[in-house]
Each structure stands twice: as C-alpha cells, then as structure tokens.
Write a structure and sequence with these properties.
Order of helices and strands: EEHEH
Strand content: 15-25%
Largest sheet: 3 strands, mixed
Shape: elongated
Radius of gyration: 14 Å
CATH class: Alpha Beta
Length: 72
C-alpha cells in the first residue's frame, strides 16, 4: 500500500502495488485489500487504484516481513 486517504464522508482512496505486474496474487490481493479497508470503522466507500511506479522492492518491506519471507 503506497497511500490511503479517507475524506470526511468516509470515502477511502487507496493506491497500491503488487510485487510484479504478473504477480500470482493479482487476481486476489486487490480485492482483499479493498475488503479490509471497507471493513475499517468510518469507511463508507473505497476506490482502489493499482500502480507499478515506483516498482516494488523488498526494501519497501519491514525488516520483520523480509525475514519472515526469506528476503534477508
């Protein structure tokens, strides 16, 4: 997730990426992210946009996540 902004009416704009355009989770992950944001208290609607700029890099992950997924 690169950016989330929620306005006073509860509309959430979400900008996110995947590890790659051909990521195997591309058909699932955006919907899961949208559902999670929608379930957040105060959120009434969600607009989710995908981007690949800047491209994903493991350095964007927390150290804990990199360790858990074997990137370190």
């Amino acid at each position: 997730i690169y950016h989330i902004e929620v306005d006073e009416d509860g509309h959430a704009d979400v900008l996110m990426t995947l590890t790659a355009p051909n990521c195997p989770a591309a058909g699932i992950l955006p919907g899961q992210a949208e559902d999670a944001v929608r379930e957040t208290e105060g959120v009434t609607s969600v607009n989710l946009e995908m981007t690949f700029e800047p491209p994903f890099s493991p350095q964007m992950m927390s150290e804990e996540a990199r360790l858990e997924l074997g990137f370190m």
